[in-house]
Amino acid sequence: MTSRAVSFQEIAVALRPFYFAVHPDRFAQNPHIRKQNEKSLQVFNGYLSDLFPVSKTIRPADIRFSISNDEKNGFEDIEITLSGTDPVRIVNYLRSNKRKPLKNDLGALLRSSRSDAIRKSKEAEITRMALKNDIDDIKWRTGLHDVVWQIDWEESHMKRCLGNLNRLLDQATPESRLGVIHALYKNILRFGRGSFVCCDGSIQLGADNVPEQWEQPT
């Protein structure tokens, strides 16, 4: 980054690797480091803010951060002296070779984040496929027109609801089972809060209810 008129937003973008490495949330298992980094970040951000525009009351400050260091299998302290009114100089200082642990730490973080995102994406796809199979199965079994999830819980909870409905059908008497199938045939089944018959004739079963409550008259 060259010394020219830069905005606060440009400085913030340039400092992303630094913020990633020292962010307090990364040290939740170490309260001392978390608290130290939190206080130092407040001072650091306050100093940067005073440069846009430059405050007449700005004063030099010494701060300390701890970062993860895989090579040392632990943490490493870094001390920073904030001085002057050139934000570009501060950025270049933090991105210099002296701050290699920050660069390595960021690379590890990005690789970890990417792997985690890929894993979660695959898990979500498996969950969606399994859920679609469960929905198709209950449609085939009851003649349902559609199944709708109308609650702000994760759709993974829908799998449990469908499983409960299958068990209800399995354990019901032949007469009760026929009654349930008759009510659901060519109808829309909704899972939401509470169990009742909707104004349009569709049936809602409470995702927050137990199957016994579904059988109670509304």
From TrEMBL:
Domain DUF4461 per the UniProt entry, residue ranges: 106-216
Signal peptide range in chain numbering: none
Stretches assigned to the DUF4460 domain: 4-94
Listed InterPro entries: DUF4460, DUF4461, TCAIM
One GO cellular component term noted in the UniProt record for this chain: mitochondrion
Protein name (record): DUF4460 domain-containing protein
